[in-house]
Specification:
The protein is α/β, with parallel strands linked by helices. Helix content is about 45%, strand content about 15%. It folds into two domains: about 140 residues, Rossmann fold (3-Layer(aba) Sandwich), CATH 3.40.50.1860; about 110 residues, Rossmann fold (3-Layer(aba) Sandwich), CATH 3.40.50.1860. Helix 12 links the parallel strand 9 and strand 10. It is globular, with a radius of gyration of 17 Å. Bound molecules: D-glutamic acid.
């Protein structure tokens, strides 16, 4: 699985909790983050490179694009190019939000790239969502997470400004359409108020992985109760920082980080 940085760890956490015996290789492409403001063509190239790397160098049986921006930019192409299942986070997120919303008014926040791509509107249409999506970009949120600053006064002030459109639209559910945003959940919840339910794609993505492993018969069957998979974390940027902040965000499984260098 991969993300531009720490965001995909929200999906990794859900996956490790649900499927503790599966091996995981996580790549945080921190030397090229943030993906959100980049042209989608460029993000597509990054996603193709990382997906090929995971398949060729790590022999993975499935790739999870644990990044909305990369899912919006590249998912269809990656599925076409590779034989292993490739999963994104947009569809699972939409499914999760539609299950929760009672009014049908769902807000979606994401990076500039994700929101501008229209991927969420298309996903909602494919689910024949009855209500209305209110989509809004939140440039700047990701940088706070990458700095490890998730509850500061500055991030709160930014959240007040960026969340105003979805708040004013009276949504009952807010889909966190960027895998970094669950780390800002406290701040986002403070601004949105208690009556708005925050939804992330992490759990639903992990459930989808479970279904695919069952359908394809490729799940790992532990030989002993409590057997844990091997969890590897790679970063293309500062590995020391990835270990420090990643350990805080994900938990004890992230106790070592390897460097990955793009040629
Ligand atoms: N976590 C990513 C996403 O879900 C990317 C954030 C970024 O690099 O801008 O969109």
């Amino acid at each position: 699985m991969f993300d531009s940085g720490f965001g995909g760890l929200t999906v990794a956490r859900a996956l490790i909790d649900l499927l503790p015996a599966e091996d995981v290789v996580y790549i945080g492409d921190t030397c090229r983050y943030p993906y959100g403001p980049r042209p989608l063509d460029e993000v597509r190239d990054f996603a193709r490179q990382i997906t090929s790397f995971l398949i060729d160098q790590h022999d993975v049986k499935m790739v999870i694009v644990a990044c909305n921006t990369a899912s919006a930019a590249a998912l269809d192409l990656l599925r076409f190019e590779h034989d292993v299942p490739v999963l994104g986070v947009i569809d699972p997120g939409v499914r999760a939000a539609l299950k929760v919303s009672t009014s049908g008014r769902v807000g979606v926040i994401g990076t500039v790239g994700t929101i501008a791509s229209g991927a969420y509107q298309r996903a909602a249409q494919s689910h024949r969502a009855p209500g209305e999506l209110v989509c809004s970009a939140c440039p700047g949120f990701v940088k706070f997470v990458e700095r490890g600053e998730t509850t500061s006064e500055q991030v709160h002030v930014l959240a007040e400004r960026l969340l105003a459109p979805v708040k004013e639209a009276g949504v009952d559910t807010l889909l966190l359409g960027c895998t970094h945003y669950p780390f800002l959940a406290r701040t986002i919840a403070d601004v949105m108020g208690r009556e708005v339910v925050l939804v992330s794609s992490a759990d639903e993505t992990a459930f989808e992985v479970t279904d695919i492993l069952a359908e394809t018969g490729t799940g790992h069957h532990p030989r002993a109760a409590g057997e844990r998979g091997h969890h590897r974390f790679l970063s293309s940027g500062d590995v020391g920082w990835f270990k420090e902040l990643g350990g805080r965000l994900l938990g004890p499984e992230l106790d070592a980080v390897e460097a990955v260098l793009w040629g």
